[in-house]
Amino acid sequence: MDRQAFVRTLKRVAPALAHKDFIPVFACFCFTEETVLAYDDVIALESPLKDNDGATVELRGAVRGQPLMSYFQASRSRHVRVVLEDKVAVKKKRKKKGEDDTPLGQNVVFYSGKKPAGSSAQLRLGLIPEEDFLFTMPSTKGVKHYKVSDGFLERLKKCVITLGVDPSHPWRMGVTCCFSKKGIVFYSTDDHIMTATSLEEELKLKGDIILPPRFVNHLLDISRGDPADTLYYSDEWVLVEFKSGLRLFSRLISDVQAERYAALIAGTEKDVAEVGVIDKPASFERCLEKALSVLTVQTLRRTNFNIGDDQLHLETITPIGRVDDKMRKLGADVDAVRALISYPDLMRKIAPHCHEICFTEKCVYFRGEGVVHIVSILAQKSEE
């Protein structure tokens, strides 16, 4: 098999290699001649194993992933070839007549060249037999499936800004997707900001699932260069197949509570209807950029929003410095509000695709085309 094609394939599935080898096979590439797979007990990636000429690596079994990939990345040969050899016990005493060496499993020898005899470099790794694999990709026959659209991926991109990763609240993790005949509703929250967006499509699907955080991130990352084709899901797992044949798998998070998201949206929009929305100030993102100049990972990332006298005043104070900025002429009769907002850096990311804003006693509400963001207020102080 062509070495460069071999390395490209390994890199595609490498994100699913475990970083620690408490369970050895989780840190291995699992070969089946036609495919190579990696699984770290959270996600799995499987890719066809062929170069442009249809050549493959004739190997069935698992070998340590990082040494294999590092070796062939450093190699400059054109081809990859493998040969199996038996592991034999090393005996200190001389063998008795008629006594044979007892195989202790197999090694796989990778040669950097087309012919082993003429190759000057080789890598020898232990081989885990195929019957010891702890995972194989599930069958997608008869499983619920959805043809992934560009709109689906665009909605995921908006949700990933507020992607939840806290395992103590499983229902808030990842992206909750609610499939119905009318389309899909997406929810996500990082406990500071909540995102809700929808995609109108005629579907024959019904049901709610939570796409885990790593699955969402890998799906979007891979889709930049390899379009996602079909999403399959059961009650326990989700799998996406890409145009190239690459497949991404993850187990689902079971604690779906979409009704809690819906209730929060309904309650917030009731408050928003009483207060009223205003057009987002044209300089809103620019003011947030200025606030970020004194915010770092090490500082407390908070900004005061003060509304009054037809202007919005942003005040950001950290050990690094202080930024004061004002957005004048809001163009609406807005009640005076003083609110402490966490993570203005995330607000900077959600603001561009929203055109309306509302400050209530509990939150800052952003609304755009088919998307809503609710930013929680950490503290509120009344004017003295």
Structural overview:
- With 384 residues, this protein is of the alpha+beta class.
- It folds into three domains: 3-132, DNA Polymerase III, subunit A, domain 2 (DNA Polymerase III, Chain A, domain 2, Roll); 144-256, DNA Polymerase III, Chain A, domain 2 (Roll); 272-380, DNA Polymerase III, subunit A, domain 2 (DNA Polymerase III, Chain A, domain 2, Roll).
- The protein is built from seven helices and 23 strands.
- The strands form three sheets. Strands 9, 10, 11, 12, 16, 17, 18, 19, 20, 21, 22 and 23 form a twelve-stranded antiparallel sheet that branches. An eight-stranded antiparallel sheet has the order 4-1-2-3-15-14-13-8. Strands 5-6-7 form a three-stranded antiparallel sheet, with no helix packed on it.
- A hairpin with a 3-residue loop joins strand 2 (35-39) and strand 3.
- Helix 1 (3-13) packs antiparallel against helix 2, helix 3 (150-160) crosses helix 4 and helix 6 (284-292) runs antiparallel to helix 7 (344-350).
- The longest helix has 18 residues, at 258-275.
